């Protein structure tokens, strides 16, 4: 019988804490579509300050935040956005920018550290003289931390360079900052500095920060008023949203400080798993709370079997691709849980090696 559960499928599996639930229960609320909810106003003001922008907007999810941001920047159909080939917007958001917004994605190669080469971005910008046959480039999107690369962080220097390039060509810059607080903690740079070159930036409250729902978009006052209208258009206006925003405020007060520990646990996990035969982890690339494990071709076990056998021991992981396992740390996983998970990996791998020997 499994008595223990270590859920590393994502940091979205975090459950609201007691203090969050208590704050939600007593939150002052009103109709936010009419602009009357005081708790929403408080959270939005606080996030605008943290993210270094004039204004901010609470929306239901990170997907909605990216969709609204891209569509607000690209109000003319046939606009084009330049973004990484493995960016969350391209891979995991149902192609919403195209299917709903009529915005064309122009993908650029992602490097292993999540960056795109500046010269490749520049080459992807359309020549305005060819507007008769080409879409019009209006926006560049970055992602920090970068999910596909295993939570690696974009530096201030890199982001500023992309910002300069955007300015030079009269383009906007959006940062999908779903995990920008992780990047901020890992780099030791305030969120507003990481977002300085961007015209808009998002931050998820419902990942490592542990709130039950919500993502914040931050930008100029005029950008956010347009975004607010689009949120309503998409059916994303929530009346007494202060109940959710109250959890977001607690997340800021209590959970940002816990991210450092998640990163520490991710490094321990990576280091310990890299010692297990048949599993490969590049511990040096673990910068935040995500660990990718490669199951070697000659391993005694497939990634699917590994996932199932771990599950039987109460250790939950995800499988983002062939021979790949993904582990995401969050504040509801302790260092002790990490050691338990490592011992399960060892048992499963060693057990299957013994089985192989027995067969031989
Ligand atoms: C999780 C995530 C999103 C989307 O957030 P949801 O709230 O799940 O819609 C967007 N971008 C990145 C990089 C993410 O990791």
Q: If you had to describe this structure to a student in words, what would you say it looks like?
A:
- The two termini are about 30 Å apart.
- Helix 1 runs antiparallel to helix 11 (about 240-255) and helix 12 packs parallel to helix 14.
- The chain has 2 domains: about 20-255, Type I PLP-dependent aspartate aminotransferase-like (Major domain) (Aspartate Aminotransferase, domain 2), CATH 3.40.640.10; about 260-360, Aspartate Aminotransferase, domain 1, CATH 3.90.1150.10.
- The protein has about 350 residues and is an alpha/beta fold.
- Helices cover about 40% and strands about 15% of the residues.
- It is built from 14 helices and 13 strands.
- A 7-stranded mixed sheet has the order 2-8-7-6-5-3-4, with helices on both faces. The protein has a 4-stranded antiparallel sheet with strand order 9-10-13-12. A two-stranded parallel sheet has the order 1-11.
């Amino acid at each position: 019988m499994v008595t223990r559960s270590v859920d590393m499928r994502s940091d979205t599996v975090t459950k609201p804490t007691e203090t969050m639930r208590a704050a939600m229960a007593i939150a002052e609320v009103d109709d936010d579509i009419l602009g009357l909810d005081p708790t929403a106003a408080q959270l939005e003001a606080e996030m605008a300050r943290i993210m270094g922008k004039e204004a901010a907007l609470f929306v239901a999810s990170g997907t909605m935040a990216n969709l609204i941001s891209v569509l607000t920047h690209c109000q003319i159909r046939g606009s084009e956005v330049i973004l990484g080939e493995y960016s969350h917007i391209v891979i995991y958001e149902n192609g919403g920018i195209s299917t709903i917004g009529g915005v064309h994605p122009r993908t650029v190669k992602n490097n292993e550290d999540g960056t795109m080469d500046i010269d490749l971005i520049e080459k992807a910008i359309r020549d305005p003289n060819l507007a008769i046959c080409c879409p019009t480039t209006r926006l560049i999107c970055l992602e920090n931390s970068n999910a596909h690369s295993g939570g690696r962080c974009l530096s201030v220097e890199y982001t500023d360079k992309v910002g300069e390039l955007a300015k030079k060509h009269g383009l906007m810059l959006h940062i999908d900052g779903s995990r920008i607080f992780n990047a901020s903690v890992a780099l030791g740079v305030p969120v507003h500095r990481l977002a300085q070159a961007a015209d808009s930036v998002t931050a998820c409250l419902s990942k490592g920060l542990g709130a039950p729902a919500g993502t914040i978009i931050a930008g100029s006052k005029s950008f956010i008023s347009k975004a607010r209208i689009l949120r309503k258009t998409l059916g994303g206006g929530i009346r007494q949203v202060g109940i959710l925003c109250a959890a977001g405020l607690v997340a800021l007060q209590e959970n940002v400080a816990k991210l450092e520990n998640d990163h520490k646990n991710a490094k321990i996990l990576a280091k310990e798993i890299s010692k297990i035969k048949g599993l490969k982890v590049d511990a040096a690339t673990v910068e935040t709370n995500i660990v990718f494990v490669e199951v070697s071709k000659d391993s005694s076990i497939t990634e699917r079997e590994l996932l199932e056998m771990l599950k039987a021991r109460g250790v939950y992981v995800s499988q983002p691709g062939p021979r790949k396992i993904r582990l995401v740390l969050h504040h509801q996983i302790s260092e002790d849980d990490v050691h338990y998970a490592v011992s399960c990996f060892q048992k499963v791998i060693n057990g299957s090696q013994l089985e192989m020997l027995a067969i031989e």
